[in-house]
Write a structure and sequence with these properties.
Layout: H1 9-25, H2 34-54, E1 62-63, E2 70-71
Amino acid sequence: MDPRQRPGAEFTAWAAVHGLATLLIDAPLADATDADREAAIHHAIATVLRGLATGPDAEPYRSNDPHIALPA
């Protein structure tokens, strides 16, 4: 991560994880299938890690998993 982007980055990760937990417990994902919940978790983690690790100028995250991101 570019050191200039580091200040406050932990709050971005915290907000994403907290928001996902809220969705999984209280709202739209509370009744989702295990597979859909797992896909949401993987997608959120992959997105946060990509943003923290590579910054805004990175290529789009790609995966063979259609639930996570753009196709490889």
